[in-house]
Amino acid sequence: MTIETITGAVNGLNGTLTIPGDKSISHRAVLFASIARGTSRIRGFLKGEDCLSTIRCMKQLGVHIEEEQDEITVEGKGLKGLSEPVEVLYAGNSGTTVRLLSGILAGMDFHSVLTGDASICRRPMSRVTGPLKQMGARIDGRDEGNLTPLSIRGGGLRGIHYSSPVASAQVKSAVLLAGLYARGQTNVTEPFVSRDHTERMLKAFGAEVNADPENRRVTVEGGAHLEGRNIQVPGDISSAAFFIAAALMTPGSDLVLKNVGMNPTRSGIIDVVRDMGGDLEISRLREENGEPVADLRVKYSKLHGTEIGGEMIPRLIDEIPVLSVLAAQAEGKTVIRDAAELKVKETNRIDTMVSQLVSLGADAKATEDGMVIHGGSVLSGGAVSSFHDHRVGMSLGLCGLVSKEPVTVRDAEACEVSYPGFFEELRRIKS
Ligand SMILES: O=C(O)C1=C[C@@H](OP(=O)(O)O)[C@@H](O)[C@H](O)C1
Ligand SMILES: C=C(OP(=O)(O)O)C(=O)O
């Protein structure tokens, strides 16, 4: 168990930092490159534990992957070139790995078993195994195919028109990936638009993908041929969110974050913190490999509470833990609704954040589908736990910047999942 202690920042957070690679895009780059023909080179890849799990699984499926300091090289096997794994595929803590890889394995004429850590073994998988079974894959698992380990025997798929009950990019991506292997067309409709990295990247690899955001529907044609390519992964806005929040809530801060992905399906956090009164400037907005990227300058700001729900939720789903910390520092009330998906992440993020914030002296309550926070209480500090959830650990660490006593985060090693070196970086820019 690793413990991290964060003490107050007397002069705020200052300077410049470069945000590490986007986790969602890094996973997809390795997965899609593996089923493309030819060589792909990936720069800016996130070497967090989750993305390393994806690399490990693809190696077990026979893909040659070279990991160098600044570049990952993937020798693609073509759409159907993966080989039957001898061992169980282990996804660690990564829901994205299990769900997206299930979509690919559903297209393979062989048997594979996919599992992960204690948290993965609790997370619902029928949201992907259900539609994949409708397409013709044979999948089983505990709780009638809802829980890992999943046993998948794929092949012989037919296209479906799937209306997903949840706005989930993992569900959408799994079905679209299986759709590449299916006879005919496959489409997915979702209640709100979720992150669209799969659509953007599959198109770049040469697949026929049609996105119709107005109707929240994406269509792929079966029998695609993906061609290897070079990919530059932008910085992860979900990682930048911790430093955006830290700078906004700590007096004296003036921080520049470089290389932040600004995909509109991910940038809800920018809209919300501006709406709360946050001073955040966007500069050098540019497009790299079909994904918008910018630099951000964030200054300490007096924030007020806000209300969020509906289509905004998928645009900032992973930022809600850190948003709850910000809300506890803002003046007035913040209401977060329509966010029941938080209950099926690495932990139940509604309960873990509310219980730990309350233990630090915040006024926060869990609701059926979100939380209500009355901001402005001075936090006491003390010991909290990440509950082995990376986003919970990093969010709680930030409380130490403004609390009376330091904040100690137990099980802080969980943060390596998406942000290796997070606490060192926080200490570096804090004075
Ligand atoms: O597709 C992805 O890369 C992800 C989608 C989201 O999950 P859901 O699809 O379950 O909403 C998000 O929470 C997760 O961190 C990464
Ligand atoms: C929910 C997350 O990831 P995953 O679903 O891939 O475990 C996350 O990174 O916050």
Automatic annotation (TrEMBL):
Say which enzyme class the record assigns. transferase
Q: What top-level branch of life does the organism fall under?
A: Bacteria
* InterPro entries, sorted: Enolpyruvate_Tfrase_dom, Enolpyruvate_Tfrase_sf, EPSP_synthase, EPSP_synthase_CS, RNA3'P_cycl/enolpyr_Trfase_a/b
The catalysed reaction is: 3-phosphoshikimate + phosphoenolpyruvate = 5-O-(1-carboxyvinyl)-3-phosphoshikimate + phosphate
Q: Which residues form the Enolpyruvate transferase domain?
A: 11-426
Write out the residues that bind 3-phosphoshikimate.
K23, S24, R28, S168, Q170, D318, K345
Instruction: Give the subcellular location.
Output: Cytoplasm
* Pathway info: Metabolic intermediate biosynthesis; chorismate biosynthesis; chorismate from D-erythrose 4-phosphate and phosphoenolpyruvate: step 6/7
Q: Which UniProt keywords apply?
A: Amino-acid biosynthesis, Aromatic amino acid biosynthesis, Cytoplasm, Transferase
Q: What Gene Ontology cellular component terms go with this record?
A: cytoplasm
Could you state a single Gene Ontology molecular function term? 3-phosphoshikimate 1-carboxyvinyltransferase activity
Q: Cite the EC number.
A: 2.5.1.19
Recorded hits in Pfam families, A to Z, give:
EPSP_synthase
Coarse class of the primary localization is: cytoplasm
Active site annotated at which positions?
D318
Q: What's any GO biological process attached to this entry? A: chorismate biosynthetic process
Q: Where are the transmembrane segments?
A: none
| Residues annotated as binding phosphoenolpyruvate | K23, G95, R123, Q170, R349, R391
State whether it acts alone or in a complex, and with which partners, per the record: Monomer.
Give the matching PANTHER family: AROM/DEHYDROQUINATE SYNTHASE, PENTAFUNCTIONAL AROM POLYPEPTIDE
Family membership noted in the UniProt record: Belongs to the EPSP synthase family.
* Function according to Swiss-Prot or TrEMBL: Catalyzes the transfer of the enolpyruvyl moiety of phosphoenolpyruvate (PEP) to the 5-hydroxyl of shikimate-3-phosphate (S3P) to produce enolpyruvyl shikimate-3-phosphate and inorganic phosphate.
Record-given protein name: 3-phosphoshikimate 1-carboxyvinyltransferase
